[in-house]
Amino acid sequence: MTSKRTRDRLVSRLQEQGVTDQAVLDVVSNTPRHLFIDEALSHRAYEDTALPIGFGQTISQPYIVARMTELVLAAAGKLDSVLEIGTGCGYQTSVLAQLVPKVYSVERIKPLQDKAKQRLKGLGIKNVEFRYADGGFGWPGEAKQFDAILSAAAPRSLPQSLCDQLAPGGVLVIPVGGDTQELTVVVRDAETDKYHKQVYEAVKFVPLLSGLA
Ligand code: SAH
């Protein structure tokens, strides 16, 4: 159920759906998704579907994780630091952490983040800094700028606060909307400092909620 062959079948499905970045596909193939969900559901870990992780939240569908990661890698110039909003179970976090030097991850539900931290530790992933915070305003406390920001939760409209935390040339990948949502990519032009927005496919994410749970 959780063998390399099962994972490779998932990778083939992602390729069929149009994911082409080999580095992303390799990381998906090497990441044990079954360790990020409840044991009772682990037989479904390599299906290309979102699954419940408690607290009314879900682990993102592998296709979406791969697609968003691919968009980050394609659009960003230098990629030293990535901010993730919505750690959840830590699956997307661990995919990112295998591809970029430093990941910052924010979550508003403490028990979810605590579990995610333990999982990443168990997998020997050390380049992630976690904060229990409302990520709607980005990384709290410091006026940091990121080469990429990836949100796993959907705000109703594009938050300017997140655009402002992009480094020059940085990219924000985020689902935007309510009942219908669009996967949106914003690039902060390094020369003109203007924001360029591009809209991709329709998606379905949990809402970006404000405040701590
Ligand atoms: N990529 C994660 C997806 C988790 S679902 C995974 O694969 O597990 C989205 C997560 O965003 C949820 O855990 C939810 O609690 C979190 N979230 C929603 N609004 C948030 C906010 N304002 N700040 C931080 N996290 C938020």
Explain the overall architecture.
With 213 residues, the chain is of the alpha/beta class. It has a domain of 141 residues: Rossmann fold. The protein is built from six helices and nine strands. The strands form two sheets. Strands 5-4-3-6-7-8-9 form a seven-stranded mixed sheet. The chain has a two-stranded antiparallel sheet with strand order 1-2. Helix 1 runs antiparallel to helix 2. The longest helix is centred in the first third of the chain and has 14 residues. It is globular and about 50 Å long. It starts with a helix and ends in a 10-residue tail after the last strand. The site of S-adenosyl-L-homocysteine (SAH) has 25 residues, from strand 2, helix 4 and strand 4.
Relevant terms:
Rossmann fold; 213 residues; binds S-adenosyl-L-homocysteine; 27% strand; single chain; two-stranded antiparallel sheet
Q: In short, what is this structure?
A:
The protein is α/β, with parallel strands linked by helices and 213 residues long.
Largest sheet: 7 strands, mixed
Share in helix? 25-40%
Q: What share of residues are in beta strands?
A: 25-35%
SSE succession: HHEEHEHEHEEHEEE
CATH-defined architecture of the domain at 63-203: 3-Layer(aba) Sandwich
